Amino acid sequence: MTWIDEVMAQTAEVESPKSYVYWAALTTISAAVRNNVYLNKFYYKLYPNIFCFLIGPSGVKKGFPIKMAEDIIRLVGGIRVISGKASIQGITSSLATTQTFKDGSAPITDSAGFIPAPEFAASLVRDETALTMLTNLYDGHAHEVFDVTLKSGIEKMKRPNLVIIGGMNDPMFDDIITAREMTGGFIARSLLVLESERGYVNALTRAPKVPYEPEKLAPYVREVAKVKGEFKWTQAAMDFYEDWYYNKFKPTEANDKTGTVNRIHDTILKVTMLLSLSRRLSLNIELGDLTEAFQKVLILQHNAQQMTDQSGKSDLAPATKIVLKELMAAPEYKMTRTQLLQRHYNDFTSLELDQVCEHLVETKFLISPYRAGNKVWLELDKNFLERFKEAEKKIAGVIK
């Protein structure tokens, strides 16, 4: 049983979606290993740090996986954790300061840090430069030393390496992710784990069959934190990756305004390194790790496409996004007007729904609402569906 298998077994009865727990586990490995390991890309070193965001409606249980990652990292010790509400200036100041530990762990002299943020939008003090700065810190390979000039002087960050796991619901995503972040690189560097329902229904009145014991999950991660050095390719993994890169990776053919597809090769390799470390302490890029990374990252790439295609800043944008998501998931891509109003009575009024439908008909996303029996039906336009599916095929072709 691998370490991630053990995590999934201990959390089998938690209500959080399984994908949230899986990615929280990988983020835990990322936070533990910091900038101790890398893959040599010859013109730069690729480190396995990731930004991971669990996205879903309130009540879908985003908090537990994030707390799990933080709990395990704190048990491991010797890792800088930046939690609670913080400004970007506070984050950079923390990263630039040597951190010592009461338990005798070696001090942290470089600028590696881990940010667990159950409510990411609320945790980050509003600042128009915040996400741009986080984008720069993500690319630690580009900055051996990163200077931040403040009124109080210059703060120097050495070998910055930042890992984030955060939670957001759809309105928060639309609020914090502006057009600049969509196209400026922040989304391209982020793994968006999108779920709409709990993964397991559990009243939590009975003890789980397998208890959740982070103290038993921490020892392996503690060993991961000690690993240092360069990842090496196995021949099978190298052959697979080169065949994909030279023959199938065609980012210019994808209609991607975020830049996610252009960066997806490095994202896949980061996740491959994390999967490898979750299974063994030797630094090898194995074919099984690589193919799993391809599968998992492809799903998240579709999430990014879905989130950004449906985002907007008009007053009706949140309602429009909800309507499109519901219809995309509905049988035969149609629902009754009453169903939508009943499901989302807190999200929009009947008048707002009518305005959304009018806009979607004009933009040819929706056919004109029609009456069948005593019900008014809303149905996606078949031409829009064909265009959407064709775009999905092009995106998938970039990865497969």
Mean pLDDT: 88
- Strand pairing plus helix content: what structural class? alpha/beta
Helix content: 40-55%
The general outline is globular
The Rg value, from CA coordinates, equals 22 Å
Q: Provide the low-confidence segments as ranges.
A: none
The number of helical elements comes to 16
Can you characterise this structure?
The chain is α/β, with parallel strands linked by helices and 400 residues long. It folds into two domains: 3-226, Rossmann fold, CATH 3.40.50; 317-399, Arc Repressor Mutant, subunit A. It is built from 16 helices and 13 strands. It has helices at residues 3-10, 18-33, 63-76, 88-96, 120-123, 130-138, 170-176, 179-184, 214-224, 235-247, 260-279, 287-309, 317-329, 337-343, 350-362, 382-399, and strands spanning 37-40, 45-46, 51-55, 112-117, 145-150, 153-158, 161-168, 190-194, 229-233, 284-285, 334-336, 370-372, 375-379. Strands 2-1-9-10 form a four-stranded mixed β-sheet. It has a four-stranded parallel β-sheet with strand order 4-7-3-8, with helices on both faces. A hairpin with a 2-residue loop joins strand 5 and strand 6 (153-158). The radius of gyration is 22 Å and the shape is globular. The model has no long low-confidence stretch (mean pLDDT 88).
Q: Mind sketching the topology for me?
A:
Blueprint: H1 3-10, H2 18-33, E1 37-40, E2 45-46, E3 51-55, H3 63-76, H4 88-96, E4 112-117, H5 120-123, H6 130-138, E5 145-150, E6 153-158, E7 161-168, H7 170-176, H8 179-184, E8 190-194, H9 214-224, E9 229-233, H10 235-247, H11 260-279, E10 284-285, H12 287-309, H13 317-329, E11 334-336, H14 337-343, H15 350-362, E12 370-372, E13 375-379, H16 382-399
Helix pairs in contact: 2-3, 2-11, 3-9, 11-12
